[in-house]
Amino acid sequence: MHSTYLKKVKDMKKDENQLKAFYSNNNTVVKAGPGSGKTTVLTLKIMKLLNEKIKYPRGLACLTFNKEAVKEFTTRLFDLGYVRRSNVFLGTVHAFCIAEVIAPYAHLYNYGIPLPLKIVSNKTKEQLFNDVVSNLGYSNNSVKILDMDKERTSNIEGLSSIEVNSYDIPLNVAKEFEKKLHTMGMVDFVDIVNYATVLIQKEEYVRKCIEAKFPWLLIDEYQDLGKPLHEIVLSLFYNTNIKIFAVGDPDQSIYGFTGARPAYLNELSSAPNITPIKLTTNYRSHQDIINASIIGLNKERNYISGKTFNKEAEFHFIACEEELDDQYSEVVNQIIPECQQKGIPLDEICVLVQGKRQIKDLGNVLDEKDIPYYISKFEFKRSDTVNWLEKCASWVVSKTNESFNDLSDYWINLLKSHNYFISQERIIIERKKLYVLLESSYKYNNSLRKWLKYMISNLGLYDILKESTIYPDEIDNLKTLLSVTLEGRFNDYDIKRFSNLGKPVNQITISTRHSSKGLEFEVVVMLGMEKGTFPYFLNEGNSAKLNEERRVFFVCVSRAKRICYLLRSKRYKKKTKYGLKTFSLNPSPFWIELQQNIHT
Predict the structure, then answer these.
(1) pLDDT attached to residue 2
(2) Could you tell me whether strands 560-576 and 579-584 are parallel, antiparallel, or unpaired per DSSP bridges?
(3) Whether 268 contacts 222, CB under 8 Å
(4) Which among 452, 463, 444, 588 has a CA at the least distance from the CA of 528?
(5) Fewer CB within 10 A of the terminal residue: the chain, N end or C end?
């Protein structure tokens, strides 16, 4: 047994709820509060099942929210001594639906699934959506793609008793959009999950095959995954002997615009024959930070800190005079220098803003002051191909960083999946060519742009991905990546920095509120804390949306270990039909609630 695994299990014995989840042999729902070690529990659970419970050739499936989470998850498993074996699936819901449901079984039934799967590009999808909206006589402002896709995911039938409201305009657009998309012989990612859900719900043979392969199904971040995944889980839970192990936190359900709802995790947790477990010890934050986050949530939670601090928690409420510009100035001229004087490194500081525009504006101010910063979201997607290039860069930097076999396996599979005939002899040739190419690419290690151009050209990636039905947006994505190495914030990157994407090094982090989930810092700085801004004024009269904004605030505050700054501006200029007017804005109700409770 791997020493790291044994040490982690020993450490877990200090937390009886973590231990209970680890040893549970029943269907289990773990509600894990912020900083409570949910990923540790889940990865150790997987190792225990594979080492002790599940005999080869059977395996397990673990589904998580996005590719970045899969990458982190897989890295942690290898650190625990995980050895690859067949019939173990670690990936996203979309990848599971394609690889484990649609690819092996869809051709056996007539559910109108266009086969072989041809995934529509984002550009084509947007054009088709706009055409449908126009043809139905709706205005461009009446419905967005997100509204349509939410309708498509939320209205799937199944076993859940959670009521879902339907809206006529996005529903009408959704029906016409799907009709036209399928006539083109194409699908999108919403289709893929919905089709897989129907196959699992309707076909006993499909369920039996999945059960034979995967006696355990584990799900991370359950609260983020929406109704189709919930219906898949309920169908497998009630109609097979598959054991379910779901981890999540209803209080961190903040993606309602995609159809995710905290009620789905609560429904599963209260199902018969489910063992509910709560992780209530926070190993990240000071108790005062924990208490402050709960104030924002406006619900009773019995979270306690499991970490000892030799300093008190700090809360700073700063009212600036005008506009966000004054808040940016406060961050760069006062807050960051103040933190540095306290010995807090830049990579322990995170600034949370409303959206992409504020990220760009704050970035410009930081550039002027030569303060290095890291943005948690990029202009390009960290797709499978980009992740592979990151790993290639890491291998070029040091051959001990990555497995060349894994790199070459991805390359061979990419060629195979794009209709390249690969004989055994060709596999050997391609592996050798890749090895030689990677070694020769070191001459460009000081320039990410030159290295990427060299790799893309010599691999022939554009030719391979041209008209790809698997990665229809990948050429555009690679071109976007190249563009930010020319005139964006990657223009001075070497390949070592590229290989460490996702890891700020002596940089402050800028993130949107929604993208902050999963992050942690000594200091969290929250901007835009005015009434009407956060929560957004249109959400104040909608209880469901207001509650979600409360959960967003809970997530933001709970990113902090010890220090939290809240900034607002007293006045903003806004365009009106009478010209530019100055308006006075009150503090956010979240600001008021927190300030009143901390100062009492």
Answers:
(1) 84
(2) antiparallel
(3) yes
(4) 588
(5) C
Q: Give me the long-range contacts of 593-598 (CB less than 8 A, separation at least 24).
A: 593/295, 593/296, 593/298, 594/292, 594/295, 594/296, 594/315, 594/317, 594/557, 594/566, 595/317, 597/291, 597/292, 597/295, 598/288, 598/292, 598/315
Give the position of tokens 């996203």.
92
If you write DSSP's letter for every residue of 102-150 in order, what string do you get?
IHHHGGGS-S---SS--BPPHHHHHHHHHHHHHHTT--TTS--HHHHHH
Q: Please choose, from the candidates 79, 41, 47, the residue with its C-alpha nearest in 3D space to the C-alpha of residue 60.
A: 47
pLDDT at 510 over 70: yes
pLDDT at 489 exceeding the cut of 90: no
In three-state secondary structure terms, 30 is: strand
Q: How far is CA 240 from CA 28, 217, 222, 262, 516, in A?
A: 15, 11, 20, 25, 37
| Closest by Cα among 17, 96, 79 to 44 | 79
106 has pLDDT over 70: yes
Identify the burial level of 355 via C-beta atoms within 10 angstroms of its C-beta, where 0-12 means exposed, 13-18 middle and 19 or more buried.
exposed
Do residues 482 and 452 touch, judged by C-beta distance below 8 A? yes
Sequence-distant (≥ 6) Cβ neighbours of residue 153 within 8 angstroms: 190, 193, 194, 226, 227, 228, 258, 259
**What does the alpha-carbon distance between residue 497 and residue 504 come to, in Å, rounded to a whole number?**
9
Q: Is 525 helix (H, G, I), strand (E, B) or coil?
A: strand
